[in-house]
Amino acid sequence: MYKTIEHFIGHTPLVQLKRIPGKTSNIILAKLEGNNPAGSVKDRPAYSMIIRAQQRGDIQPGDTLIEATSGNTGIALAMSAAILGYHMILVMPENQSLERRQVMAAYGAKIILTENMEEARDVAGQLCEAGKGFILDQFSNPDNPLAHYEGTAPEIWQDTAGKITHFVSSMGTTGTIMGCARYFREKERKVEIVGVQPQEGAQIPGIRKWPEAYLPKIYQSELVDRILLVSQQEAEIMARRLASEEGVFAGISSGGALAAVLKLSAQVRNAVIVSIVCDRGDRYLSTGVFPS
């Protein structure tokens, strides 16, 4: 039997960073989620949300799906919809990079632009209420963190032989950190779960601090041991350093997560720290973050 593209979602590399950490007793590992077919960690929950809704009978091929997204989930959903035979409407803020929109359109998605992410979520809900399609709602859908509970976290556990001591993840929809935290809690309660949020005023794609009214319903604060804040400058500098010093071409949120890892690493010893590299840097070229 030959495999099709969905069979290559997950099982991404876990690599040790050698130069950026400097002299330290800690081992710092990066989970390269940009190696997924559509280029981000969101491939996992996107496919999970569609296929499980289909299995429950909520949707069937040929239906129209709706989702609010800042980019990566939309790209992953557009790919998954193309694989499984669905129409896709994506609602996203107009300030997201041009590359993201182009990739979504290439997969066949219809794109609706809004002023910000909160408005995108409202518009997606209105479209669903108007009967324009089925909303997947990554912010409240348990199939989002379930994909990481069943995939991302077990892969990390296996690749570290259960030696992981700290897990660091940027917080957006919070699906990644919620699914992984739940798994690690069940395996070994000594794994410290560290979330990454933006400092006041920072606009880092993929990292959010939601207003209370828009806090994702899948989020459980008790599963996160601590939250570290990163600035716009820290995230962008570290994204550039990842490429030039480690050969890992990643997005800005991945730079933010690694900036948080270095802050954490300065406070611990003999730790095995795993950070999620959410996506690839090529979808941020038009933002000017990387040198030309």
TrEMBL record:
Pathway given in the UniProt record: Amino-acid biosynthesis; L-cysteine biosynthesis; L-cysteine from L-serine: step 2/2
Cofactor (UniProt): pyridoxal 5'-phosphate
Catalytic activity: O-acetyl-L-serine + hydrogen sulfide = L-cysteine + acetate
Record carries keyword Amino-acid biosynthesis: yes
Tryptophan synthase beta chain-like PALP domain: residues covered: 6-279
Residues annotated to bind pyridoxal 5'-phosphate: N72, G172, T173, T174, G175, T176, S253
Gene Ontology MF annotations: cysteine synthase activity
Record keywords: Amino-acid biosynthesis, Cysteine biosynthesis, Pyridoxal phosphate, Transferase
GO BP of this protein: cysteine biosynthetic process from serine
N6-(pyridoxal phosphate)lysine modified-residue sites: K42
Keyword Transferase among record annotations: yes
PROSITE patterns to which the protein is assigned, alphabetical: CYS_SYNTHASE (PS00901)
InterPro entries: Cys_synth, Cys_Synth/Cystath_Beta-Synth, CysM, P-phosphate_BS, TrpB-like_PALP, TrpB-like_PALP_sf
EC assignment: 2.5.1.47
Pfam families: PALP
Family: Belongs to the cysteine synthase/cystathionine beta-synthase family.
Listed name of the protein: Cysteine synthase
Originating species: Nitrosomonas eutropha (strain DSM 101675 / C91 / Nm57)
